[in-house]
TrEMBL record:
<feature type="domain" description="C2H2-type">
    <location>
        <begin position="67"/>
        <end position="100"/>
    </location>
</feature>
<feature type="region of interest" description="Disordered">
    <location>
        <begin position="25"/>
        <end position="57"/>
    </location>
</feature>
<dbReference type="InterPro" id="IPR036236">
    <property type="entry name" value="Znf_C2H2_sf"/>
</dbReference>
<feature type="domain" description="C2H2-type">
    <location>
        <begin position="213"/>
        <end position="240"/>
    </location>
</feature>
<feature type="domain" description="C2H2-type">
    <location>
        <begin position="157"/>
        <end position="184"/>
    </location>
</feature>
<feature type="compositionally biased region" description="Basic and acidic residues">
    <location>
        <begin position="39"/>
        <end position="48"/>
    </location>
</feature>
<keyword id="KW-0238">DNA-binding</keyword>
<keyword id="KW-0863">Zinc-finger</keyword>
<keyword id="KW-0539">Nucleus</keyword>
<feature type="domain" description="C2H2-type">
    <location>
        <begin position="129"/>
        <end position="156"/>
    </location>
</feature>
<protein>
    <recommendedName>
        <fullName>C2H2-type domain-containing protein</fullName>
    </recommendedName>
</protein>
<keyword id="KW-0862">Zinc</keyword>
<dbReference type="GO" id="GO:0008270">
    <property type="term" value="F:zinc ion binding"/>
</dbReference>
<dbReference type="GO" id="GO:0000981">
    <property type="term" value="F:DNA-binding transcription factor activity, RNA polymerase II-specific"/>
</dbReference>
<feature type="domain" description="C2H2-type">
    <location>
        <begin position="101"/>
        <end position="128"/>
    </location>
</feature>
<feature type="domain" description="C2H2-type">
    <location>
        <begin position="185"/>
        <end position="212"/>
    </location>
</feature>
<keyword id="KW-0479">Metal-binding</keyword>
Length: 245
């Protein structure tokens, strides 16, 4: 792995704003107890000293989303920089295709342990992230954050080409491909390409015949979750649209 790592002789210190996806992976900045200011009577020197500390703490609070990060580890394949070995190693796997973390339940492998942990919840049904407004639960923290925007109406992600706004980063990425025509996900069987990984996965089932979504009432199986949902309505007497299995 050392062949992938280049330690720069001069470390670059850069100040940056963490992206939305990274905020929940970083520990919040906490107040330093040494910044406590006594409420007792102070001398002039003490007041000046306290004022300096207070201003310093205020500046820290104002810029609490800013961090100093020393990126001294570089990927030799693409040149991207990282501050921690674990982040670099995980990134390198996007080039090598290595997936060293297998699921004990279904055997599916992942390049990052966090992705394995999230996948495991699809088997256990665990949804530890709950919306305080409506109570809906999610298996991923970023899905909860995106869901909360459906209550607030916030759409902070803008397309630079047409100005359309989105609440989810993936929705923005998919939208951008409608401008670029990019279809990065290709079927290894027939070569057909797709702009979304979900559409590729559904397409692959047309080759394998896999139908992973089963009706608990009658046992009928489907290749798409949307088709299963439509089918369930036939049991509940709700209007349904016909769907090919």
């Amino acid at each position: 792995m050392a062949g992938f790592v280049q330690k720069q002789s001069i470390s670059l210190m850069e100040t940056f704003i963490l992206q939305e996806e990274d905020l929940h992976e970083r520990e919040p900045i906490t107040e330093d107890p040494s910044f406590h200011i006594s409420t007792e009577v102070e001398t002039k020197d003490q007041r000046e000293s306290s004022s300096t500390v207070s201003e310093s703490q205020s500046q820290t609070d104002t810029n609490k989303k800013y961090f100093k990060c020393e990126k001294h580890l570089t990927c030799l394949t693409c040149g991207k920089g990282f501050s921690q070995n674990c982040d670099l190693n995980a990134h390198i796997r996007t080039h090598t295709g290595e997936k060293p973390f297998p699921c004990n339940t279904c055997g599916k492998s992942f390049s990052r342990i966090c992705d394995l942990n999230t996948h495991t919840r699809s088997h256990t049904g665990e949804r530890p992230f709950s919306c305080e407004i409506c109570g809906q639960s999610f298996s991923r923290d970023h899905n909860l954050k995106a869901h909360i925007r459906t209550h607030t109406g916030e759409r902070p992600l803008l397309c630079k080409t047409c100005g359309k706004s989105f609440s989810r980063i993936n929705s923005l990425k998919y939208h951008i491909r409608t401008h670029t025509g990019e279809k990065p996900f290709s079927c290894k069987t027939c070569g057909k390409s797709f702009s979304k990984i979900y559409n590729l996965n559904v397409h692959i089932r047309s080759h394998t015949g896999e139908k992973p979504f089963s009706c608990n009432t009658c046992g009928k199986s489907f290749s798409r979750m949307s088709c299963l949902n439509d089918h369930i309505k036939t049991h509940t007497d709700k209007k349904a649209f016909p769907c090919k299995t």
